[in-house]
Amino acid sequence: MVGDSFWGLIEFFLNLLAAVVCVVVSVWLTRRRADTSRQEQPAMILALLTTSAWCVTAAAFGGQSHLSGWLETIRNLAWIFLLYRLFANDGRDHSLTPIRPLVVVLAAVECMQVLLLIVGFRLDSDLHAGAILLSASSLLHLLVAVGALVLTHNLYAGASATYRQTLRWSAGGLAILWAFQLNLYAATYLTGTVSPELIAVQGLFIGLSAGLFALGSNTRAAQLQLAPSRTVAFQSLSLLIIGGYLLTMLVAAQSLELLGEGFARLTQVGFVFAAIAMAVLWLPSRRLRGWLQVKVLKHLFQHRYDYRAEWLRFADTIGQGGTRALPERACQALADITDSDGAVLFLPDTSGDCQFAGHWNWVTFKPALSAFDNELIAALERTGFILEIDEIRSGATIMPETSLVPQWLLSEERAWVLVPLMHFERLVGLAILARPPIARRLDWEDFDLLKVVGRQLASYIAEQVGHEALAEVERFDDFNRRIAFVMHDIKNLASQLSLLARNAEKHADNPAFRSDMLVTLTSSASKLNTLLARLGRYGSVGTTKKEHVDVIQLTRALARQFVDIHPIQIAQAQGCSILANQEALEQAMVHLIQNAVDVSPPNAPVIVSVLSDGLKGQVEIIDSGSGMSAQFVRDGLFKPFVSSKQGGFGIGAYEARELIRAMGGLLEVESHEGLGTRFVMTFPLSIMPALTPAGTDDGREVA
């Protein structure tokens, strides 16, 4: 009697608590913002309310009362209807024909409980008939529970990968409800009596299921995962092993008592001896404990990432050969970590500014000319913070320099995460990851993995930069050796031609021939001497004397020189006098105009404009050629011996930039494949010499 009153008290409180939980979850589902993609919410609210009504009735009159029986049937029908509506979220209620008949059969079997309740109400005093009715009712409940569990399994197993992430919580709640029903009525059917213990704890399972329904209705349900720490997982498993051992020992000892008291006693002593021996061997052995912990955590504990698989995929992506450049492979390797749809890489240029270097699966990305503020770059280099762009858009202050994040990056809808690539506490690049198909917030595991992968990518980038610098030094050394021979041969030729010219003046018999020979030889000697002078200026052009140069006059003179080769059109000619060396400026402009002529179609003129804003003078040279890629502009345009032209030597653009830099000017380039290229030379006006001191090295390239 005491036991019955105890379990009755437990039943009362647990059912009352479950009723409150169901009502709270129903109200929350009703008042939250409607989600048009979730068609099961009305059915879920109905099921929770009917379940709450059953819990209240069971708390007041007991779970075996007639009124509780009626409400239990209504409750089960509501759960079956909820199960059917869950199939409707991805349309399988129409595509899978066996669903509707099975749902109808389950509802019909559950409705047969009504007949049993009516018969039981009329034969309430007949104990023999009551036992038969209890057995029949239990059997019907078993059939419904088994069918509902089969439907729940098919619901989850046949769902799409995306829908399954959201469905798992609701499916878990239904599985708990029907699994409890299966155990309750299986025990009732086998024993012929209702277990008061199972009836008492039914409210606990109902409340747990209602909580899972609430989690499943959350818009972020796909991101919610149970992720216990390694310590909790290992200690929990240890407790399970200990409990299992004690239970096994108890069952074995109780079973062996049937064979005799002496044999049972021997068995108990044997179990104790085995336990002590294992403890003595296992506890002091660090290697054995470590092996067991590794095996447990490796096979029973799941992180968000499979690190082995991620690292193998990363190595495979980076190690791909073919025509794919390192920036593109680096972008893909980093994007694969977080399932991003694309990525963009920025690398520092010769002036230290981070410029667009390449992308993967982000063709529409259009960076600004000045990509990142230097203070922001310094802050990222100092802290190594990974910035979530959505947090910055919402006004969060991750670090004081957050306000320096460029507006063009915040305006880019696909931009999701900004990852600094660090190598020996030095920033060697910045990567922008695009938003993945299922948007989520980064957690500690994402940050840790992105930092590790970012450092590995930074080491590859730094290694490539070092190799390129070494190769460039070797090419320069080869160039210096070659040019020394060239200068020697040209100098000898110039001396011979000069001597021939002097002898021809004295010994030529034919005056006409002598006159022509003199003109030819003098012109050749002059050209050779000019070439020698230009070759001799490499490396010392910074000491060239500056003077006032009329840029319009120089531009028109160069246009006349090219008139027989290619049309040169002067689009704008604003008054512009700059402080520069005329010969060096002419040489730089000749290089750039010649490059534009070489890549332009025959009938497409090269456009030259001379502009002035009162402080600076600009010369723009625009062609309509095939253009250059951002990678070539950054890595190859201003490097000697690298040329996009067939048979080109790759010296012109490099020499033009060095000449302009030495005169305190700035050379910028903007190019788009298939559209053309625009070179912009900027110099201080001659009336503002103090604003740009001579020798300032502030040149930069912009792609």
Beta-strand share of residues: 5-15%
Sheet with the most strands? 5 strands, antiparallel
The termini sit apart by 88 Å
What proportion of the residues is helical, as a percent range? 55-70%
Question: Tell me, what's the shape?
Answer: elongated
Q: Overall pLDDT, averaged?
A: 77
Number of strands: 12
Provide tags for this entry:
11% strand, 703 residues, alpha+beta, single chain, 5-stranded mixed β-sheet, 12 strands
Task: Provide the fold topology.
Layout: H1 2-31, H2 41-61, H3 66-87, H4 92-95, H5 99-122, H6 127-157, H7 161-191, H8 196-216, H9 230-256, H10 261-282, H11 286-300, H12 307-318, H13 326-337, E1 343-348, E2 354-360, H14 374-383, E3 387-388, H15 389-393, H16 407-411, E4 415-423, E5 426-434, H17 444-507, H18 511-536, E6 547-550, H19 551-561, E7 568-573, E8 577-580, H20 582-599, E9 606-612, E10 616-623, H21 630-635, H22 652-662, E11 666-672, E12 676-684
Parallel strand pairs: 7-9
Antiparallel strand pairs: 1-2, 1-5, 3-4, 4-5, 6-8, 9-10, 10-12, 11-12
Describe the fold and architecture.
This protein has a 5-stranded antiparallel sheet. A 5-stranded mixed sheet has the order 7-9-10-12-11, covered by helices on one side. The chain has 22 helices and 12 strands. Strand 4 (415-423) and strand 5 (426-434) form a beta hairpin. It has 703 residues and is an alpha+beta fold. The longest helix has 64 residues, at 444-507. It has helices at residues 2-31, 41-61, 66-87, 92-95, 99-122, 127-157, 161-191, 196-216, 230-256, 261-282, 286-300, 307-318, 326-337, 374-383, 389-393, 407-411, 444-507, 511-536, 551-561, 582-599, 630-635, 652-662, and strands at residues 343-348, 354-360, 387-388, 415-423, 426-434, 547-550, 568-573, 577-580, 606-612, 616-623, 666-672, 676-684.
